[in-house]
Design brief:
The chain is globular. It folds into 3 domains: 5-177, Dimethylsulfoxide Reductase, domain 2 (3-Layer(aba) Sandwich); 183-371, 3-Layer(aba) Sandwich (Rossmann fold), CATH 3.40.50; 415-526, Beta Barrel (Barwin-like endoglucanases). The longest helix has 14 residues, at 68-81. It has 18 helices and 19 strands. It has a 6-stranded mixed sheet with strand order 15-17-16-19-14-18. The chain has 527 residues and is of the alpha/beta class. The chain has helices at residues 21-24, 26-38, 68-81, 87-93, 97-104, 109-116, 120-131, 142-145, 150-163, 183-188, 205-215, 228-237, 250-253, 257-266, 323-333, 343-353, 436-441, 451-456; strands spanning 13-17, 42-46, 59-61, 94-95, 136-140, 174-176, 242-246, 269-274, 286-289, 298-301, 306-310, 370-371, 395-396, 415-420, 446-449, 464-468, 473-480, 488-492, 520-526. The chain is 30% helix and 16% strand. The two termini are 44 Å apart.
């Protein structure tokens, strides 16, 4: 997030898109609700489903799946045409506006309505509301990123924010809400195939030399590694022989699970390190039991870039060990002695090798967290990014055209499918499905379908139906709901017994290599 969570309540307009915030981020959603209910903020929700946040919205734009670049370009068309953009900000802090203007020129409200289904009048209202706010915040999640155009979607939102001067201001920003508690921290620590800690590129010789000296290694990899989706394809093709999976359950979370299973079964060796015996762990040659968050010391970095201490509350069970101890011992047995005295020693090393963390240490984290970048032990941290200038100097507008999803409905598969989460289960259910109370509230998978589609297919509430795509099929009970729109089904992906990802598409964003989990074509019939 460019801005801290507390800034949401300073926003005059909040734009939420690709995020079922009240169910996926219920605590953070309370900031949005308070901003609307008590602080006079206006809320724009752009979502194909009638999620609960629409109840708080001044405007709800119900777009067709996979049309995000189109409606964002449409808003910018209106803003530029009506001269509502922040000209002084754009002139002094950005480059590329002329190319952007050329691209969005054709995205008239009428043209966007044909693509997105959003009424032109509503698009114009949303554009004016966002552009004229003293400070406007954009919140998004995987409904924006899990498309073949995911990178384009994010860049388009950044375009919109810069156009209206909403980057580097309190109450503004472009704010991705992370899907798990330490996703931000994992990325910061180099859990990506192309960077070391702090997003230092592995292809940079100076970075490799510096990291090599810190770790006592003469040579570090010069080429980018594989993304998670590329690893699975590599396993399927026999190019990847072994896989070490830590805290992930691809046998429920990956797209096209039939393909994923074949990939994992093709490996010579599979290691899974987790707190429970997940669906993926059941396929493993070796399972390493790890401690959960409450059973260890350390730090997490949350969605707003805030580094926080985690303190041990209970003893770990059985033979479980802290993740850092397991990794250190595996590394040592493989020939690289990795000996740390404590998590505090690891944090000290993080500060030495990670420029954005260099001012953060355990002593400073005793009472409260610190937002990176924090460039010295006397630096207070940086809750809001890009206040004076962008990290790269000038912000760059990207002129982006809309492209359709990789798979759209046809005669054989006439319906769209999108996937997501529900409030009472989490991700692949590894933890939440151990709770009787949560299982009572959300016991099984369902297929959310509109009243219109239910009538067309002669379906009754709770009736078991079969949903099939070009990749697989599942059966689940129909949930007839006005949350759904005609022509589009919604299925939560938590449930291994009826896994939505049996159906989803492996088509990838060409830049981020993220699969298009939010759009595919399906058909249904009574089971």
């Amino acid at each position: 997030m460019t801005n801290p969570i507390r800034d949401i309540e300073k926003s005059r307009v909040i734009l939420i898109t690709g995020s079922n915030t009240s169910e996926n981020h219920p605590v953070l959603s309370s900031y949005v609700k308070r901003a609307v209910a008590f602080k006079g903020a206006k809320l724009i929700v752009v979502d194909p489903r009638k999620i609960r946040m629409t109840e708080f919205a001044t405007l709800w734009l119900r777009q067709n799946l996979g049309t995000d670049v189109a409606w964002i370009n449409g808003m910018m068309h209106v803003i530029i045409k009506e001269n509502l953009y922040k000209e002084k900000y754009v002139t002094s802090r950005t480059v590329g506006l002329d190319e952007l203007k050329k691209t969005v020129e054709k995205y008239t409200p009428e043209y966007v309505e044909k693509i997105s289904g959003i009424p032109k009048e509503d698009l114009i209202k949303a554009a004016r509301l966002y552009a004229t706010a003293p400070a406007a915040s954009i919140l998004y999640t995987m409904g924006i990123t899990q498309h073949i155009s995911g990178t384009d979607n994010v860049k388009s939102l950044a375009n919109l924010a810069m156009l209206c001067g909403n980057v580097g201001v309190e109450g503004g920003g472009v704010n991705p809400l992370r899907g798990q508690n330490n996703v931000q921290g994992a990325c910061d620590m180099g859990a990506l195939p192309n960077v070391f800690t702090g997003y230092q590129r592995v292809t940079d010789p100076a970075v490799r030399e510096r990291m090599g000296k810190a770790w006592g290694v003469e040579r570090l990899p010069e080429k980018n590694g594989l993304t998670a989706t590329e690893m699975m394809q590599g396993a399927h093709e026999g190019r990847v022989k072994a896989l070490y999976v830590i805290g992930e359950n691809p046998m429920v979370s990956d797209p096209d699970l039939g393909h994923a299973k074949k990939g994992l079964e093709s490996l010579d060796f599979l290691v899974v390190q987790d707190i429970f015996l997940t669906e993926t762990a059941r396929l493993a040659d070796v399972v390493l039991p790890s401690a959960c968050f409450a059973e260890k010391e350390g730090t997490f970095t949350n969605t707003e870039r805030k580094v926080q201490r985690v303190r041990k509350a209970v003893e770990k069970p059985g033979e479980a060990r802290e993740d850092w101890r397991i990794i250190s011992e595996v590394a040592s047995r493989m020939g690289y002695p990795m000996a740390y005295e404590s998590p505090q020693a690891i944090m000290a090393e993080i500060g030495r090798v990670t420029p954005s963390y260099c001012g953060i240490n355990y002593e400073r984290l005793k009472r409260d967290g610190i937002h990176w970048p924090c460039t010295g032990t006397d630096h207070p941290g940086t809750p809001c990014l890009h206040m004076d200038q962008f990290t790269c100097g000038l912000g760059v507008f990207h002129a982006i055209d809309w492209i359709p999803p990789a798979e759209v409905p046809d005669e054989e598969y006439p319906l769209y499918l999108t996937t997501g989460r529900v409030l009472y289960q989490y991700h692949t259910g590894s933890m939440t499905m151990k709770s009787d109370g949560l299982n009572e509230l959300a016991p099984e998978c369902f297929v959310e379908i509109s009243p219109g589609d239910a009538q067309a297919y002669e379906l009754k509430q709770g009736e078991t139906i079969k949903v099939a795509s070009r990749r697989g099929e599942i059966t689940a009970k129909a949930r007839i709901s006005d949350m759904a729109v005609d022509g589009t089904l919604f299925i939560p992906f938590h449930y291994a017994a009826a896994a939505a990802n049996e159906l989803t598409n492996t088509a990838l964003d060409p830049t981020a290599k993220i699969p298009e989990l939010k759009v595919c074509a399906v058909k249904i019939e009574k089971s």
